[in-house]
Design a protein that fits this description.
This protein is α/β, with parallel strands linked by helices and about 300 residues long. Helix content is about 55%, strand content about 15%.
Length: about 300
């Protein structure tokens, strides 16, 4: 029951100030967001890829209020891509982008977001990697899918994310699987109303399995975004049943959560991609990580007490 409360707090400026000032916050933020700059994150990229893992990189920040801020977000990704090019790690490191960072919520936001994300997709393709469009709250999805379709005309490997807790997602999955898209399936981490989303964990898990089966049986490339051991096992079984080879799907997990499992799956020959965020505007991302799993919140509260 705490999840919705935490997600509501993620939109509160007062809670942002309170949590940012708390003595234990930095210790927990560092667990999920291991750096603020490209320079900070390079050693993490080198370490994880050296261990046989792949990455998807997220420059955190969603509270974009001007076109100039949206342009700065674009430039931050372009700087990151330049550094990955220098490291010669393009095939191992993709980008994850939230279109809200590229101005989607501003006036003429759909056109602005497409204009800003396109050069990032082009730069990624030039170094042998790709971009995945993250899903945000349900009101943004029609725009996100339209931009995804537009980008795929020139860059067919552009991926997108779908969220199992939304009622619409099974139909979205069938459409995306039929046209050969790269699709990351997650449970969902935004506060959504009962009119559009399942509210019960058991119902969300059942929807996740139904949708993953659709993706595995389709023509696209499924990306299993989950830390749940049961769903990971089900994903492996669905892949076997669908006749997929190990390089025809992948697992994705967040940096800072179940690191041993990342390495175990990679050692078994699976493609294992670590979703790694960095940047200074960490609050919204951090709060969703707390909301997703009670253990993360307990860890945070213990840290606050021990540092107080």
């Amino acid at each position: 029951m705490l999840g919705p409360v935490i997600l509501a707090a993620s939109r509160s400026d007062r809670m942002r100030r309170l949590i940012s000032a708390a003595p234990g916050t930095k210790q927990v933020v560092d667990r999920f967001i291991p750096g603020e700059t490209v320079g900070d994150i390079v050693p993490i990229i080198e370490d994880l890829t050296g261990r046989g893992l792949e990455l998807t990189m997220d420059v955190v920040g969603e509270d974009i209020t001007t076109p100039e801020q949206a342009g700065a977000a674009r430039d931050a990704y372009l700087e990151l891509i330049d550094r990955i090019k220098d490291l010669e790690l393009g095939p191992k490191v993709e980008m994850s982008v939230k279109l809200s960072m590229f101005g989607q919520a501003l006036e003429h936001g759909h056109e602005l977001a497409l204009k800003n994300v396109r050069p990032v997709v082009e730069a990624a393709a030039a170094i042998g990697t790709t971009v995945t469009l993250d899903a945000e709250d349900h009101t943004t999805l029609d725009s996100m899918f339209a931009i995804h379709g537009e980008l795929r005309k020139d860059f067919p490997q552009t991926g997108c994310v779908i969220q199992a807790y939304l009622f619409r997602t099974e139909a979205d999955a069938r459409r995306l699987a039929a046209n050969g898209s790269r699709v990351r399936l997650v449970k969902g981490a935004y506060k959504e109303p009962a009119e559009v989303a399942y509210q019960n964990k058991h119902e969300i898990d059942k929807a996740y399995v139904r949708i993953l089966r659709v993706l595995m049986q389709g023509d696209g490339y499924p990306m299993i975004g989950s830390h749940d051991p049961r769903l990971i096992s089900i994903g492996q079984e669905l892949a076997r049943t669908a006749g997929r080879k190990l390089d025809e799907y992948e697992f994705q997990m967040l940096y800072g959560i179940r690191g041993d499992e990342h390495l175990r799956l990679a050692a078994e020959g699976h493609r294992m991609r670590v979703y790694t965020a960095f940047g200074t505007d960490w609050y919204g991302y951090f709060m969703r990580r707390l909301a997703e799993k009670p253990a993360n919140l307990r860890f945070f509260l213990r840290s606050m007490v021990s540092k107080g």
